[in-house]
Amino acid sequence: MESLSAAFCIIPLLFAVSARVEKPLPRRIPAIVPGIVLTALHDANATSDGRRFDGALAVAKFIVEVMPLGPQRNEFRRSILIYEDIGTVLSYAMRDRYGAYFNDDSLPGMHDRLIADYPGYDDYITEFRVADAKGNVLYPTAETRTFLVEQLTDK
Amino acid sequence: MKKFAVAIALMLSAIVAHAADRATTPEITPPSNGEEFLRLSSTEKLFWSIGYSQGYLDALNKIDVAAGANSACASLAARTERQSSTAGKMSGFELVSGLEKFYADPANTLIPVGSAIRIYMLQAAGKDQTTIQELIETARALGAESSHRPIASK
Questions:
Q1: DSSP per-residue codes, A66-116
Q2: B120 to chain A: nearest residue by CA?
Q3: Distance CA B141, CA B107 (A)
Q4: CA A73, A30, A145 angle in degrees (round to 5)?
């Protein structure tokens, strides 16, 4: 009986300890922290610094998990989703030999997904698309990133 | 009177055709360094890259006419310039991508476009990193000198 009551006391304590180890940040994050991370993401994208961008994105994803529910968290999560798309395009642009342009072969499904997720992208990118000698239509990564950055301020 | 009307109609259609042609052809100011190159749109960068490669090859093919068949200029062109030409070795898409990567480093933005292309071609050909870095440092110094600005540090 004594051991049973001891188990009732210890088990919740163990859960509490493991929760603390997994999330070392406090539940209440200073309001300025998400802003700092977003600035880091913005600057890393502006200078096409893929390593800094990936690092800042990882921090942003960690922070959003420990933010309290509410409009600030929703807004921050929306920004992260846009930055994930920017990251995909940036990574390709910096890594690939033909990274200035992409199509369905080089970034499978990306163009269709951008059209589905961002109203206005199709009209915007049509002006900048080009076709190579074989007739393959290609979309510029630079203008795509510019468009996605503009989505961060548009609501 | 009939001939006069036809002449006016022809003139008007010529003006319209010329205006349409101007609207579809981008007017590109040739970039001298990375700052100017990065200001161009992707389409302008592509058009410029293709034109640069084509123009460079045309100039090399006519060097014997311009400078004389056995001149020092012609032998220099055959010996070194042809090797560093992008024509036939690199597509416009690849050249634009390469220059965008090269100029992504803020310290490289003042490097003249011609030097950037040569350095990128050597990089793509697998030249050793020490030589590439020396060339980049020299090109940065030259770029800063030509724009009368101090060398940007990383």
A1: HSPSSHHHHHHHHHHHHHHHHHHHHHHHHHSTTTTEE-TTTSTTHHHHHHH
A2: A97
A3: 10
A4: 50
Domain boundaries, chain B: 2-146
Asked if B97 contacts A96 with a C-beta cutoff of 8 angstroms, the reply is yes
Rounded CA separation B85/B83 (Å): 6
pLDDT digits (tens, 9 = 90+) for B66-118: 777 777 777 777 776 666 676 667 888 999 999 999 999 889 999 999 899 98
Q: Is A104 an 8 Å CB contact of chain B?
A: no
Given the structure tokens 């199709």, which residue do they identify?
Answer: A122
Query: For residue B33, which of B97, B90, B115, B101 has the smallest C-alpha distance?
Result: B115
Listed by start position, the domains of chain A span: 2-153
- A132 contacts chain B (CB < 8 A): yes
> Which ipTM was obtained for this model?
0.72
Q: Do B46 and A143 touch (CB under 8 A)?
A: no
The whole model's pTM is what? Answer: 0.74
Distance in angstroms (rounded) separating the CA atoms of residues A69 and A81: 17
Residue of B nearest to A91 (CA): B101
The reply to whether B54 touches chain A by the CB within 8 Å rule is: no
